[in-house]
Design goal:
elongated, 440 residues, 5-stranded antiparallel sheet
Length: 440
């Protein structure tokens, strides 16, 4: 039952020490939002109010604004209003989506300007039921069936456990003024059709239908939380690398159910069920794009990284002069790459000894180039550097961190930090040793 005490208890579940936080209330002038504003006021919690006048219902839209504004004037509450005009270009279709985007953009602007922590909306249990039915018709999965979250992304909904009838009863008891939106009685939209035709039929099947749905919604949310925890554990297990990008084991993820694949990949915007089989059947080097991420199929890896839009071509890394001329004093010289400015991305330790008499100076570091080839130590014969990368199963991102050590004729002396060219290596019998190493 909705009363002030129940409201305070629900708010305390959503926000720690609610009286110490700052709030922006979305108030339309209807019963739900006017009750919400009344409860905040009576609870002694400071807040501000935002209202959108969509100008869709003529004088009724203006009277809705006046209802919310008069309440704020009476109780000295800061009031923000946005009146839709021609510049907002109302679309002929998708009015609801357009209206949602417009109001949430407006709310964010106010929150940023006024430094308000939480946005509060007046969604209630009947809204939750309507959302459940809509998502059920869309095969939305457990996240969709869990409905509207009570607290997500700093948007809180303290009236969510309370039925519409409870809210109306509370408004009548406390003599809270509000306005009815008569457009809600029309079945122009799917939600209105569900609200006006389907939900009343469901209510007729069981006197306790809404109470039972309230419990079911709670169970579904607990189930969702449990499943999300399990999904996170699976993702952790199949993650090969994470600091600069996320690399998942394609093989391990491929063993999981379609549900697990979907739940993991949808976090990165790959939420089209038909797209997921394409990812697992794609050729090596294939790229997939979501709104914010790109996914690269690299042998047995799925490499997820933030999508970058370049306004100009990426500049090539400049070559780094390592040793200008031979200066092997006392038959020995050592160069620690860790101390060389401009070298980044070498995350593996190595130690190479060269016979300085075989080297042609100067020695330089550069990025791999097409046609590079060398004689890798531990192997017989010559190998192209690109073939060496494939054999080592290096991802495209890993290849971008590789440096090539070259001599004065641009011959490859080694692929840093992986393999030295054996033709130039030194041993215990070498008189003039040049040591190049990295301590990491």
């Amino acid at each position: 039952m909705l009363n002030l005490s129940a409201f305070k208890n629900q708010l305390a579940k959503l926000v720690h020490f609610p009286e110490n936080q700052s709030y922006l209330l979305a108030v339309s002038g209807g019963a739900d939002s006017m009750v919400l504003a009344y409860c905040f006021k009576e609870a002694g919690i400071k807040f501000q109010v935002a209202h959108i006048n969509y100008k869709l219902r003529g004088e009724d839209s203006d009277l809705d604004q006046k209802m919310a504004e008069d309440f704020c004037k009476k109780h000295r509450i800061q009031f923000h209003v946005y009146s839709v005009s021609e510049k907002d270009r109302k679309p002929e279709h998708s009015i609801q989506l357009w209206a949602r985007e417009l109001r949430y953009d407006f709310f964010k602007q106010i929150q940023k300007r006024e430094n308000l922590e939480f946005l509060v909306t007046a969604h209630h249990l009947n809204d939750q039921l309507e959302t459940f039915i809509i998502n059920l018709s869309k095969a939305a999965g457990i996240s969709g069936l869990s409905g509207i979250p009570a607290n997500s992304n700093r948007i809180i909904r303290p009236l969510l456990p309370f039925a519409k009838e409870e809210i109306y009863a509370f408004a009548k008891e406390k003599r809270i003024e509000y306005r009815e939106d008569l457009s809600n009685r029309k079945n122009d939209y799917l939600r209105n059709k569900i609200r006006n035709e389907i939900v009343p039929k469901l209510m007729e099947t069981n006197d306790h239908f809404l109470d039972n749905f309230r419990k079911s919604a709670s169970y579904l949310n607990q189930t969702k939380d449990f499943v999300q925890h399990q999904i996170a554990e699976i993702e952790k297990r199949i993650t090969l690398f994470n600091p600069s990008c996320k690399i998942l084991s394609k093989e391990l993820l491929g063993r999981e159910s379609d549900f697990v694949k979907f739940e993991i990949l949808k976090k990165y915007g790959f939420d089209q069920e038909k797209e997921i089989p394409k990812i697992f059947n794609a050729e090596n080097g294939s790229l997939f794009f979501s709104k914010d991420y790109q996914l690269l199929v690299n042998y047995d890896e799925l490499i997820l990284s933030t999508k970058v839009t370049h306004t100009k071509p990426t500049e090539k890394d400049e070559d780094i002069l390592l040793i200008e001329k031979s200066d092997v004093s006392e038959n020995r010289m050592a160069v620690n790459l860790e101390s060389i400015m401009g070298i980044e991305g070498i995350n593996k330790g190595f130690e190479w000894d060269f016979d300085a008499r075989k080297l042609r100076f100067p020695l330089r570091l550069r990025r791999p180039e097409q046609g590079d080839e060398f004689y890798p130590s531990g192997f017989s014969g010559k190998k192209k550097v690109s073939k060496f990368f494939r054999d080592e199963k290096l991802s495209i991102l890993a290849r971008q961190k590789i440096w090539i050590l070259t001599d004065g004729e641009n011959s490859v002396l080694g692929v840093i930090p992986l393999r030295q060219d054996r033709r130039y290596s030194g041993d215990e019998n070498t008189g003039n040793i040049l040591k190049i190493f990295n301590k990491k």
